[in-house]
Each structure stands twice: as structure tokens, then as C-alpha cells.
Specification:
By secondary structure, the protein is α/β, with parallel strands linked by helices. Helices cover 27% and strands 24% of the residues. The protein has 10 helices and 20 strands.
């Protein structure tokens, strides 16, 4: 894969017709090293956020040895890495997945949020003596951009009962939760930890680990959270105040580790007033920018003839390349007022849930790839960076 100093250098050499995924493995390494240094426990990368081989290898090279997987293809891709521990953290799994994970790939860590799931795990693994079980607890998700609590998680009362049942078959027993994707305030974690602590106190049986899940945020123009150091401090403080210092802590960051590690270079196919028609969209790498309460606004910058496009900004919306009228990104995206058909736009922060969500509707969804060596368009780690092309007012 070719490497360039930045998007401008790439566009001086190429005029791509397909959208281009621009990888920044150095950004993935930087994020992983920061999380390993600052999270007070074990870091499990949530593979669902981005499973690109270059990203996988960057995280492993940075020192991550634990991975949160949810499917057989994810297990098959990450199991060959030396010295790794895979955690199958999907709360509702097929029997085949449980059996294959345990017997063929050596997975020993499983999450559950119901008695039925516990029974499946016991039956498909054969009730071995080396199971590590993690009970998923439902906690409030109100302060996250994308709540997840309606789909998974047991009530405190049900979680307590599941812990008691799982204790009889688990070598290591844990409790887990998820505060929702793109958590916007550090307070979400102490609140959830307090609920978990109360459940542990109620069951009065040994519990070894607490998994605080994912939800750690990345930066976007419309959802720019406090620095991650504030989240780490809130978890450590709650751990100490709640008397949880003796437990092994786990986390499952996905978005926070990988959002900065890819951007997307698209071509402007047409313009109608303040709407730009581009060659990717919500059926491709940009589904998180679609209309709705959880829509994200990505940073953008424009190029013409391989040079940055200058000029005063105005707000634009994007129409994606498919024929579907819901293929629309409201933005607003601040770009030079004279942007036109044939220009290119680099869209940042698509490393999380971009490539993994892309489909081939209408025959699109195919990408070229390059490596870019410059800094991410919005950075959470190291020295603060100003966003490229901040959102314009509509």
C-alpha cells in the first residue's frame, strides 16, 4: 500500500474515481499506547469498530493483547496473533459460535445477560473447569450519543441471580456494563460502577473482575467531549471510593482507539446550491453522519488539483452516491464557497464504524486505500489540535 505525507500529496499524484480510505496506523498506535498507560486495568480492543489488518497489527504492535470479539470471522482474524486473549462479549450468541470459539480457538471468556445464555454456554462448552463468565448489567445510557441499554443487559436483581448461578461454573466471575456509544460525560462511569458495586455487595459471593465496557468517546465537530484523562480519573476515583480496588478492571474501547486512524477522501460529483453530491454516503463509510439524534458531524477539508482549496467557508450538506433519498448527511460541513464538481474532500474521524459498516447497495461501496503520515484531523491524544474546517453555522 502506498504511503503519502498527507492527502494533498496523494491527490497531486492521483485523481481517484473511487472513494479512498486513508489509514493512519501511527494514530492507532498512539491511541493504544495512551489507553494502555492510563486505563487502570486491562484494555480489550473492540474489534467491531475496525477490523482492518493494518489496524489490527498496529494495535498488537503497540502492546494490546486482549480483544473483544463478537463473531467467528473476528475470532478467526485475531486468534493467530501471538499471546492474545479473546473475549467473546456478545451477550446473545449462536450455539455454533460458542462451541467453535471454545473448542477450536481456545476462547475462555464469555459474556451473558440471561439464564438461557448461561445454559447455552454450559451446554456447548461441556461444563469445563476453565470458563470465565461475565454478567452484563444494564446501566443508564442517557449521557451517551447512541444508547445501547434497550438491547442488552440484565436488571440489577436479575444480574445478582445470574452471578449466583454463574459462580458455580466459572473459574473467574465478572460483572460488565456499557454506558452507551460516544459517552459525552465522565460521570457515566462512576454512576454505572455504583450500580455494579451494589449488585456485588448483594450477592455476597466472590467476584473477580469488573468490565466497564466501551463508550469512550472520540472527537467530532458536534460531539466534542472532555479529554479522555477525565474519564480515566473518574473511573479510578469511583473505584477507590466504592472500595473496588481489589477487582481486576477491564475496558472495551473501540471508537476512542480507532476513530482518528482513518479518514475518507471523496470526489465531488455535482453541486446544487449548498448541497454537494459525493461518491460515498451512509450506505458506505458515512452512516454515522446520517440524520437522527445520534448523527455525527465529521471534520472536512477540500482540495483542487492536489492543493488545499482556500477561500471563505459556507455550510454544505452532502448527498451520497446511491439512488436512495435517505442517503443524506445534514452536516453542516464548512467548505470553501466555490467548491465544485471535480474537487475532492477529505472527511476525518471515520476510523470507527466506517469501513466495517460499508455495504454494496446500488453497486457502490468499493474503496481504494492509502497510508497518510500526517496527524489526524481531530486529535484526542497528545497536544490538542484545532479541528480542520470547523462546522459553519447554518
Amino acid at each position: 500500500m502506498k504511503s503519502y505525507a498527507n492527502a494533498a500529496a496523494f491527490l497531486r499524484e492521483e485523481a481517484p474515481e473511487r472513494p479512498v480510505l486513508a489509514l493512519r496506523p501511527h494514530a492507532a498506535v498512539r491511541a493504544a499506547q495512551w489507553m494502555l498507560q492510563h486505563f487502570p486495568g486491562e484494555v480489550l480492543y473492540a474489534v467491531k469498530a475496525n477490523d482492518a489488518p493494518m489496524i489490527r497489527d498496529a494495535f498488537h504492535g503497540a502492546g494490546i493483547r486482549a480483544f473483544d470479539v463478537a463473531s467467528l470471522p473476528e475470532i478467526e482474524a485475531f486468534a493467530p496473533l501471538p499471546g492474545v486473549r479473546l473475549y467473546l462479549m456478545h451477550p446473545v450468541k449462536s450455539r455454533e459460535l460458542i462451541a467453535r470459539a471454545y473448542h477450536d480457538f481456545g476462547v475462555r471468556d464469555f459474556v451473558l445477560d440471561s439464564e438461557a445464555e448461561l445454559a447455552k454456554i454450559i451446554e456447548e462448552t461441556g461444563r469445563p473447569a476453565d470458563l470465565n463468565l461475565h454478567v452484563r448489567l444494564a446501566v443508564p445510557n442517557e449521557q451517551s450519543l447512541m444508547p445501547l441499554d434497550r438491547k442488552f443487559g440484565a436488571t440489577p436483581a436479575d444480574a445478582a441471580q445470574l452471578l449466583r448461578l454463574a459462580r458455580g461454573v466459572a473459574t473467574e466471575l465478572g460483572i460488565s456494563f456499557h454506558v452507551g456509544s460516544q459517552a459525552l460525560t465522565p460521570a457515566s462511569y462512576p454512576r454505572a460502577l455504583a450500580i455494579a458495586a451494589s449488585v456485588i455487595a448483594e450477592v455476597e459471593i466472590p467476584v473477580e473482575s469488573i468490565d466497564v465496557g466501551g463508550g469512550f468517546p472520540a472527537r467530532y465537530l458536534n460531539a466534542d467531549p472532555p479529554n479522555l484523562s477525565a474519564f480515566m480519573a473518574s473511573i479510578a476515583e469511583a473505584r477507590d471510593q466504592l472500595g473496588l480496588g481489589g477487582y481486576r478492571f477491564l475496558s472495551e474501547p473501540g471508537r476512542a482507539l480507532v476513530a482518528e486512524a482513518e479518514s475518507l477522501v471523496v470526489k465531488v460529483l455535482g453541486r446544487r446550491g449548498d448541497s454537494l453530491y459525493i461518491n460515498d454516503g451512509i450506505y458506505g463509510c458515512l452512516f454515522e453522519g446520517s440524520a437522527g439524534d445520534g448523527a455525527l458531524s465529521y471534520p472536512v477539508r477540500a482540495f483542487r488539483g492536489g492543493e488545499p482549496l482556500a477561500g471563505s467557508d459556507q455550510p454544505f450538506t452532502f448527498w451520497g452516491i446511491t439512488c436512495d433519498s435517505i442517503d443524506f448527511l445534514p452536516g453542516p460541513f464548512a467548505l470553501p464557497a466555490d467548491i465544485a464538481e471535480g474537487d475532492y474532500i477529505e472527511i476525518g474521524q471515520v476510523g470507527a464504524y466506517g469501513r466495517v459498516a460499508a455495504g454494496h447497495f446500488n453497486g457502490y461501496g468499493y474503496y481504494d486505500e492509502v497510508v497518510l503520515q500526517d496527524a489526524p484531523m481531530m486529535g484526542m491524544y497528545g497536544a490538542p489540535q484545532a479541528p480542520a474546517r470547523a462546522a459553519a453555522s447554518s
